[in-house]
Amino acid sequence: MDHYDEDQDYRHPEDDWDRDLLLDPAWEKQQRKTFTAWCNSHLRKAGTQIENIEEDFRDGLKLMLLLEVISGERLAKPERGKMRVHKISNVNKALNFIASKGVKLVSIGAEETSAKEGLLLWCQRKTAPYKNVNIQNFHISWKDGLGFCALIHRHRPELIDYAKLRKDDPMTNLNTAFDVAEKYLDIPKMLDAEDIVGTARPDEKAIMTYVSSFYHAFSGAQKAETAANRICKVLAVNQENEQLMEDYEKLASDLLEWIRRTIPWLENRMPENTMQAMQQKLEDFRDYRRLHKPPKVQEKCQLEINFNTLQTKLRLSNRPAFMPSEGKMVSDINNAWGGLEGAEKGYEEWLLNEIRRLERLDHLAEKFRQKAAIHEAWTEGKEEMLQRRDYETASLSEIKALLKKHEAFESDLAAHQDRVEQIAAIAQELNELDYYDSPSVNARCQRICDQWDALGALSQKRSEALQRTEKLLETIDQLYLEFAKRAAPFNNWMEGAMEDLQDSFIVHTIEEIQGLSTAHEQFKATLPEADKERQAILGIHNEIAKIVQTYHVNMAGSNPYTTINPQEVNAKWDKVRQLVPLRDQSLIEEHARQQNNERLRRQFANQANVIGPWIQTKMEEIGRISIEMHGTLEDQLTHLRQYEKSIINYKPKIDQLEGDHQLIQAALIFDNKHTNYTMEHIRVGWEQLLTTIARTINEIENQILTRDAKGISQEQLNEFRASFNHFDRDHSGTLGAEEFKACLISLGFDIGNDAQGENEFSRIMSVVDPNRMGVVTFQGFIDFMSRETADTDTADQVMASFKILAGDKNYILADELRRELPPDQAEYCIARMAPYSGPDGVPGALDYMSFSTALYGESDL
């Protein structure tokens, strides 16, 4: 608002000019005419006028009357006598009244220029936006009339179409301004357009007198402008805060919706039947961790920062704290986020367990198929063989042979009992591990067990039949029997060896593969003895052939006691010798893979054992920075931002560790004895580090915002921080209730131990701890101290501003708001102001009082 300090030696132009006009006998005709017209414009209200200035003002009566009309106040009772002493008394009363209003009555000379310069500056500021108007003085700058028109248009644009005025038509411009001023602004026509245009240098005092009338006429508009500016400022703050609230609500809703959609996916524990499908699930989870979650972590951090910034702005503007919609508090977001991370951790553990389970299942299923195939191959034809009735027509020697052969079969049958039990045990384990193809495994296992029971029954039945005929059989070929007895277990040993050499294995450490290698070496050490046994078995067969050849024994067929022949023994032995180097190669490759896994473990551990302590150290350093006071807040903010930059520059090391972690997972490495840090620990620590530095920077920014908005000095902030840190003995960044009370007392607050003191402290706690958490943060402490040490705008001030715009009415009209305020803020007020219900209201009246209190939370908006 344009105004002048009433304590300074300043007078409005007409206050100084009156005395000159009374004492200067050299006035020209135009000056007398101008001043006479001005005086009569006021005296007409009192029902009188003057004709001759010197004569009519000489006795002081009309001068006193003029002052009463202008001021609206009663002067001392005038003297009605005609003596010179009476006239001097009246003039002195008038002069004393003028002096009582703070006007210094001194000689008016070239040195008394403050009022003139003030009026000139006012004219220059008001006409600055208008083209072709350059007010530099109170004579020739007004000759073209555009200056007068610009003053009117600036305050009442509807009265003059300024765009149609021309600088080369001064007569039209001057007459337009004089006529409009007299008709609409109640300013008498003190000047003559022809005199101004026809004079090379118009009279300066006459121009100043007339312009001062505009100044007084528009002083009310100036107050309205100031009031409008105050309201605009308050409304701008409110609109900005509402936008921040809407942004918070949207960001919170989006984040909660993403969490709501993501948690069911993480809680889905529907297993896949194949390793490939589960590996795809693991890859999808890695993409989620690497691509989808990090932006949401940033959004969550930004949400907390926005919430804290909004609350700080609301506190600084004396607005009530922002309460988000139900379920959208920062604590709600944190709870939902905790649920997300819990589901995430459980999902990852489940994925790894499922992969281990499927790996174990594939291994067991392959082992089941191998053993089942070997057993089925062995049992092929056995039932048919046991059901033969060849003993009924056989000779005694043939019966003996059949009996011995059956004994060898039973020995073989007993040797296969262990394999059948292994097959059943593997099938049982596959069922317990929920193998997807359990029905076919169970069916096959059941067929093997049923067949095994049948073989046992048939074997028992045939044995009994042969024993019944044993007495009829006297001769048996011992050599064939010995061959069969020794060949059967050797054959079984070779089959077991081939089984073991082809058996798949799964290990996770170098120690385990070394154990397998050691066992394999021990097996290879038994091969020479096995070869001796093979040679001995083949020697029995050779001896039989020699006996047959020597004694010309008529052999009706092959060995009657066994189906194993030397060719089969040699073939299986050759197969065993071929499988040994293949097994060697498999163990070597697995040993190399385990060495690579160990390298990956050490590579990951070397980095993790550096990064983990680094993150912890940075967390502790940030905690110390937030507590210590080194330099100004701007210095601390600069230090923290540099610190944040150094932390962000560390991100490639985290990414490198993530890459090593992915290699470890791809290699299915599930443990690492070289470090206690997991990638999950590093991720959580890194996210907490980024969040902590961002929160600390935001806290310093809010302190700067509080300091600048509340006018708090750096020394005061340092004092507040020192007191807070002194009582924050556990360095938690918060104070308990008793610690906070002691801190306030140390800063000079008088909080007694009586009931009144407790009530006052309870009130303070409700301000600094609105959520009743039982602790006070440093930001809450600073906000409280700011309110205690700084001035702020109030609802009463806003109501006073609206009252000015309304012309002292208890209500305001929409047209008045649109005239005085910018369009968007005017419509903002109109949309939110309740109708005025007072007895002095008119149609369309709006209640600006309830609107003002609602802005500060003192009523509902």
Question: How are the SSEs placed, and which strands pair?
Answer:
Blueprint: H1 13-23, H2 29-43, H3 53-57, H4 61-71, H5 84-100, H6 114-127, H7 146-155, H8 170-184, H9 193-198, H10 204-267, H11 275-316, H12 330-379, H13 382-386, H14 396-432, H15 438-468, H16 478-502, H17 510-525, H18 527-551, H19 566-627, H20 633-648, H21 651-666, H22 679-710, H23 714-727, E1 734-736, H24 737-746, H25 755-768, E2 775-777, H26 778-789, H27 795-805, H28 814-820, H29 823-832, E3 834-835, E4 846-847, H30 848-855
Antiparallel strand pairs: 1-2, 3-4
User: If strands are numbered along the chain, what order do they take across the biggest sheet?
Assistant: 1-2
Content-based structural category: mainly alpha
Question: How many DSSP H or I helices?
Answer: 30
Mean pLDDT across all amino acids: 81
Helix content: over 70%
Would you write up a description of this structure?
- The protein has helices spanning 13-23, 29-43, 53-57, 61-71, 84-100, 114-127, 146-155, 170-184, 193-198, 204-267, 275-316, 330-379, 382-386, 396-432, 438-468, 478-502, 510-525, 527-551, 566-627, 633-648, 651-666, 679-710, 714-727, 737-746, 755-768, 778-789, 795-805, 814-820, 823-832, 848-855; strands at residues 734-736, 775-777, 834-835, 846-847.
- The model is unreliable at 1-28, 103-112 and 472-476 (pLDDT under 50).
- The chain starts with 12 loop residues before the first helix and ends in a 6-residue tail after the last helix.
- The strands form 2 sheets. A two-stranded antiparallel sheet has the order 1-2.
- The protein has 30 helices and 4 strands.
- With 861 residues, it is an all-alpha fold.
- The chain has 5 domains: 24-56 and 111-222, Actin-binding Protein, T-fimbrin, domain 1 (Orthogonal Bundle); 230-360, Methane Monooxygenase Hydroxylase, Chain G, domain 1, CATH 1.20.58.60; 401-564, Methane Monooxygenase Hydroxylase, Chain G, domain 1 (Up-down Bundle), CATH 1.20.58; 606-788, Methane Monooxygenase Hydroxylase, Chain G, domain 1 (Up-down Bundle), CATH 1.20.58; 795-856, Recoverin, domain 1.
